[in-house]
What we know:
Layout: E1 10-16, H1 23-33, E2 38-43, H2 50-56, E3 60-63, H3 69-79, E4 84-87, H4 99-108, E5 112-116, H5 122-125, H6 129-146, E6 158-161, H7 162-167, H8 177-187, E7 192-196, H9 212-230, H10 232-261, H11 267-314
Helix pairs in contact: 6-9, 8-9, 9-10, 10-11
Family: Belongs to the glycosyltransferase 2 family.
Organism: Bifidobacterium callitrichos
Keywords: Membrane, Transferase, Transmembrane, Transmembrane helix
Amino acid sequence: xxxxxxxxxxxxxxxxxxxxxxxxxVVRDFRAALPHADIYVYDNNSTDKTASIAxxxxxxVRREPRQGKGNVIRAMFEDxxxxxxxxxxxxxxxxxDAAPDMVAKVLEGYDMVIGDRLSSTYFQENKxxxxxxxxxxxxxxxxxxxGAHVTDIMTGYRAFSFTxxxxxxxxxxxxxxxxxxxxxxxxxxxxxxxxxxxxxxRPAGSVSKLNTVGxxxxxxxxxxxxxxxxxxxxxxxxxGLVIALIGVVLCGTVTMExxxxxxxARFPTLIGAAMLVITGLLLxxxxxxxxxxxxxxxxxxIVDANRFAYLKRRK
Length: 315
């Protein structure tokens, strides 16, 4: 267990894959910014000298054989105990000097502090236009669905409380994990704080591991899955309403023909329309039931998180 809050322990978490060009500087920068923190580098099957360089700089190096950033974060959250966690990438795009302020916000009581790239230099520094478009698309979609105002949903620079880390279920396996974190926090009404940071693009010789199309599809599928799980009434109810309306329109055309001719000329259309209406109503009912279950899950999560925080304070 972490120490008492009057002497908080801080862990810096750096998931890495082939970052030998930058990892040494990143470790040094965080050591200077947080001299009393433990710095962990989790090597995710790197084929270069990432692990040896990090160890030479004094970082605690561990290896995670399951490929993917989500798998690495799951391992880090399971293995490491601290009062405050700071997570960043090993590519030297995030400023370590923002970490003390992020730690201070967690100690004030926030569950997650988000290093906001998009309010400062991200769009000037990032040379990949589809990444910029993807950030805007994801931000607009999630904020609209959850009624939130989070600026940078996909940032990899974050700070967490002990309670957040130990109660957050990491389901994603890849880069979509940051989106999952944000949706999880919004759905459970956790305390978030956004702190603008000065983002910088990768230095020369450092290669991005992001696949614009592949990882973009994974992020969108994660959003789709989490909307289905966290917002079942809009998801299933909306789908059911559309299907039912199509059925009503088809029924209306058959009814109009019957009014004018006194005959039902298109029985297959009528039967299909009735099936669409029934299917739509069933989806709406399913959405209502699942929405009640989702709300009960949120209540259970909040009660468990509060109990977890209480037990932590007592130790």
